[in-house]
Target: Pseudouridine synthase
Amino acid sequence: MERLQKVIAHAGIASRRKAEQLILEGKVKVNGKVIKELGTKVSENDKVEVEGVPLEREEPVYLLFYKPAGVISAVKDDKGRKVVTDFFPHIEQRIYPIGRLDYDTSGLLLLTNDGEFANSVMHPRYEVDKTYVAKVKGIITKEKMRQLAKGVHLEDGKTAPAQVKMLSMDKKKQTCIVELTIHEGRNRQVRRMFDAIGFPVQKLKRERYAFLDLRGLSTGDARELTPHEVKQLHALATHGKQYK
Model:
């Protein structure tokens, strides 16, 4: 037996919070009866309907995807641009990205059909490290590197402390490559951080998400997360520490 809102979230229809809202609004039925109590538990034999549509309990899917630049982190785009789910026509479940990477940013992106899992992993109260490699215009000074590490002032507030490492520089072309690890997830944050110190990003890639990386994958490739990796992410999302 599982809580009704958890079953709805696992089906990929909505996050648990949104599922709770649907229940409270009387939009969920169990065996033909409207349910408005959040503590209700259901079994696999119970018939659940959400807004008149029977709930199909999908097998959970957890994917690690090497997103190419020039692809939208969404399931559809009103401008007809390529979206991440276009790379998975063979998957029957209704998968969607956990968080997002900008259109021009490549790198590691997670996709799932598990709404509860996605909601918990994205929750800001747990500091999940995300590591980016940026090619920027100009040669960043040590002083500016320290500024990035301490936090820079953006229009939506000062950023949290970050880890910064210079990987290489090309004095002839006046560019350098910098590794930046943050645990926040503001919109276009990495690009805005570099803009704030006067070094615009020319190319950006997310190399790591928590303990996950892109080893063995080429751009456009994907792999399923192992059950152990899912447990590790779940532990990070619920306890703030890695599952052993």
